[in-house]
Specification:
By secondary structure, this protein is α/β, with parallel strands linked by helices. This is FAD/NAD(P)-binding protein.
């Protein structure tokens, strides 16, 4: 009897679901009615995976509006396979409300679905229900010969010769899975503490303190943080926003008409970071009118030119000038087309001169100054990225007022369509990210800048932060935050550049950020084993994969014929977990390319060397 060939997909979250959806879409062309076994491996339920699982606090929300989240391709996606459209999150919710789609989920999630609007920010539990439905639709769309087998457990080891079948060991399973091909679609991973974190944890253990290293807030035990006591928090991004919610509303407090009513069980959070400010608010209005043509100054031709240069790509030298030119193009295109009364030059004349002015040059500065009279209408990426550079306060009390004013101004601007060039810059950021996916590991500078400017919290979360600040539950520390271990006094001490000379002591320190993706520091035995066996890792620790199809590269740059990888731990990582409808979706393109390559390889292998049971 001839056995069906097998494909193992490790990771059942959004990426794994996306790959299965693309296998279903391409199967008619590349696989036909042949039998195929797909083995999906994940310790968490498929669809949501770990990060988007339903079993988590309802306080934890997405930082995207429902209308900005889709798991389906459309005609803006550049792919070789067929487009298979489907509902965005808000449309799906409307289908559930009106009975066109039936799902089985928690009654509380159904209640949230009934009230969900397109511009609401759903809970992660609601998103989990959507992802589970998408997964079920993808499996149902597979041809009759393709069967999905779900395996609950961690994948521990991947072995096998490059020219032969692969073996995947799974936690709790005696025999490994054997397959022709393996696709890794693992999401964010835990990491071992680096030397600095180990020293801080050892210091905390010696003195009976609390140190919570970088990790996923939903999975962190916060019960060790005592009520009423100061807690130093290093990190002001989305991990902090989750921490803030769980330690305030999660401990019985509540918000009422812009005021926070404490429960008395909250700690006092002293928060700082490198920038000293929270991520910029999500933009609170939708696009109207003409879109900027993107890509314009940073497209496929510029990517090819960068790749043709000798030596490794340096982000600041080779890419940042292209990034700034593209973002400026998006910003000023919108300003001239939507708000021409705030410009003082013919648009065509400006664009012609802008195209030849060097990024950061005096000529460009003079051009912008003459064409855009109000400095508030000019794009200053350095000021956006480092708003507290050079800002000094005489006391922490003065800093509280200053930072509340900064957050209030950011909220007002990001919800005012008169500043719609900000939304054009957001679209430019998405376009740039799509181009950078073809360049491999461009370093953490770009990813951090993108997240800070484009992937910040919803406006309501920042309004809650203001209320918590007014209530004294959150205290701001400023930019350039550093933490010292005071052995003599047995406490952590924090200082910042924004309030020179001042220090804050606490018996607890929380590192409010995700662990960085690193093959050398991961807690995943699967990935560390791949690295030990010769898979290539970049300087910053990402797994190197071929940009055209996601095949894992060895240290000589050769693609593995039977192993693929996609996701945030690889050089093929994209701008976020989900795609906005009608924005091209580089992750969809990657999923499609990997699925098509895998199906073609499986077809060739089964024709060349049929397996017998």
């Amino acid at each position: 009897m001839t056995a069906a060939p097998a494909l193992v997909v490790i990771g059942g979250g959004p990426r794994g679901t996306g790959v299965i959806e693309r296998i279903a879409a391409n199967a008619a062309e590349l696989w036909g009615d042949r039998p195929l076994d797909i083995h999906l491996v994940d310790p968490y339920p498929p669809g949501g995976g770990r990060i988007w699982r339903e079993d988590q606090s309802p306080l934890l929300r997405m930082n995207s509006m429902a209308e900005d989240v889709t798991m389906f391709t459309d005609d803006t996606v550049q792919l070789d396979g067929p487009v298979r459209p489907g509902p965005a999150l808000h449309t799906w919710a409307a289908d559930v409300r009106e009975g066109r789609t039936v799902i089985a989920t928690d009654p509380a999630v159904l209640d949230e679905i009934r009230g969900l609007g397109g511009q609401d920010f759903p809970s992660r539990r609601l998103q989990s229900a959507y992802l589970r439905w998408v997964y079920e639709q993808a499996v149902a769309a597979l041809p009759p010969g393709i069967t999905v087998h779900e395996h609950t457990g961690h994948a521990l080891r991947l072995t096998g010769p490059a020219g032969g079948r692969q073996q995947v060991r799974i936690q709790g399973r005696a025999e490994p899975l054997t397959a022709e091909l393996v696709i890794l679609t693992i999401g964010h991973l835990d990491a071992e503490p680096n030397p600095v974190q180990k020293e801080l944890s050892a210091f905390a253990a010696r003195h009976g303190l609390v140190h919570l290293p970088p990790g996923f807030t939903a999975d962190t035990d916060l019960s060790a943080l005592p009520a009423g006591e100061p807690v130093l928090v290093r990190g002001f991004g989305l991990a902090f926003i989750d921490l803030m919610a769980l330690l305030t509303e999660g401990r019985g407090g509540h918000h009422r008409n812009g005021t926070y009513i404490p429960s008395g069980r909250e700690p006092v959070l002293y928060v700082g970071s490198r920038r000293g400010v929270p991520y910029h608010s999500k933009i609170g209005y939708t696009w109207q009118g003409e879109r900027p043509p993107l890509p314009h100054h940073f497209g496929a031709a510029q990517v090819a030119e960068v790749l043709d240069r000798p030596g490794p790509v340096d982000f600041r030298r080779d890419l940042w000038p292209l990034v700034t030119r593209e973002l400026g193009h998006a910003h000023y295109h919108r300003l001239f087309t939507a708000h021409p009364e705030r410009t003082a030059m013919d648009r065509g004349d400006f664009e012609e001169k802008y195209a030849v002015a060097g990024p950061g040059s005096p000529e460009l500065a003079a051009l912008v100054a003459s064409a855009v009279p109000d400095p508030a209408d000019r794009l200053d990426l350095d000021a956006l990225d480092h708003p507290l550079d050079g800002v000094r306060h005489a006391s922490y009390d003065a800093l509280q007022d200053g930072l509340r004013a900064y957050i209030t101004a950011d909220l007002e601007r990001r919800h005012d369509p008169r500043h719609s060039p900000d939304l054009a810059v957001f679209l430019g950021l998405l376009s740039v990210y799509g181009q950078l996916t073809g360049l491999g590991d461009t370093g953490e500078e770009w990813h951090g800048f993108f997240s800070y400017l484009a992937s910040g919290p919803p406006g309501p979360r920042l309004r809650q932060l203001l209320a918590l600040s007014q209530a004294g539950v959150v205290r701001f520390l400023g930019a350039g935050m550093t933490v010292e271990a005071d052995e003599e006094q047995g406490v952590f001490r924090a200082r910042s550049a924004t309030v020179p000379g001042a220090r804050t002591a606490a018996r607890a320190l929380v590192e409010a950020r995700l662990p960085g993706p690193s093959l050398r520091g991961t807690r995943s035995p699967l990935l560390s084993g791949l690295y030990e066996d010769g898979a290539a890792g970049t300087e910053s620790g990402l797994l190197s994969v071929a940009p055209e199809d996601g095949r894992i590269l060895d240290r000589d740059g050769r693609p593995h014929p039977r192993r693929f990888a996609l996701g945030p731990f690889t050089t093929a990582r994209s701008s976020g977990a989900f795609t906005r409808p009608r924005t091209g979706g580089p992750a969809f393109r990657q999923n499609d390319a990997t699925a098509r390559t895998a199906l073609a390889l499986l077809r060739d292998l089964s024709c060349r060397d049929p397996l017998t049971a």
